[in-house]
Automatic annotation (TrEMBL):
The chain crosses the membrane at residues 6-24, 94-112. InterPro entries: DUF4181 (IPR025441). Keywords: Membrane, Transmembrane, Transmembrane helix. Pfam families: DUF4181. This is DUF4181 domain-containing protein.
Length: 114
């Protein structure tokens, strides 16, 4: 996969994700999150750090582009579950769920075409 094509795919995904987030905030009344993501509890923070360390090791073995998208997919799934389980009233999990589905689509696209 060329770097330019990967960058275009990421920019399109970011644009779609941002557009959905703006729409969802207005439609569902999702409050604006803080600038930096704060984990729901310490377990979530610890597991996300472990996933980041595993990403660092897996990049040495597998293609970095695919591992990055896979990591973003797993992180979005994990955040969706934690937000849904512990902060359901804020509805922030809807945004993370959309991000997880979007990263899954990008991951499948990359696996098929590259």
């Amino acid at each position: 996969m060329t770097g330019t094509h990967f960058l275009i795919v990421l920019l399109v995904a970011a644009l779609i994700n941002t557009t959905f987030y703006i729409f969802a905030r207005k439609k569902l009344g999702i409050p604006k999150p803080p600038w930096w993501y704060k984990p729901v509890n310490s377990t979530q923070g610890l597991l996300e750090i472990i996933m980041l360390i595993l990403l660092g090791f897996s990049v040495l073995r597998f293609p970095p582009e695919i591992m990055l998208i896979f990591f973003l997919f797993l992180t979005s799934c994990f955040r969706t579950f934690m937000e849904w389980k512990y902060k359901r009233e804020e509805k922030q999990y809807v945004h993370y769920l959309f991000g997880a589905v979007l990263f899954l689509v990008v991951f499948i696209y990359m696996c098929i075409f590259f």
